[in-house]
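Chapter review: from sequence to fold.
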Amino acid sequence: MPAVPAIEGGLSAVGRRFAIVVSRFNAFITERLFQSAYDGLLRSGAKKKDIALVRVPGAFEIPLAARTLAETGKYDAIICLGCLIRGDTAHYDVIVNEVTRGIGQSAQETGVPHAFGVLTCETLEQAIDRAGLKMGNKGFDAALAASRTLLQCNGPVNCFQPQLSQGFY
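The token string follows.
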């Protein structure tokens, strides 16, 4: 099969600035996500001084914090980490939808890449598995996604512009 040209990023965070927004709710899970995201950035070449940590009360507050950080122009990417576990009411569905919409809207409207590391789980066991027990760590995955996305960008507000001008899209 012939090779198909692709727009892809690598795994280097060298010289980039990141903000990590972490929900305090379900902290026994979100702390694992944070530690792995931080580790992922450092392993990708980011410097400790270029990583800011912002803690918010719950997942619902993540989009506002992420947008506020993105609008400062100080960060090349925002990594959003939280954990939502389904309960017996519709509250879970409302929060999941609003958090997802808010993070996506912030990324689209600011042009700053946002990595989605918010777990949406049916059970506590699923959350534990996704925070490093059986299924890797989604915080680490979010950090790598942020790094890869940035390497496709020519600055935080120009994602994919170089490729567009070269006729890839």
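Two observations follow directly from the output. The helical segments are 27-43, 62-72, 91-110, 124-130, 138-150, 161-165. The longest strand covers residues 77-85.
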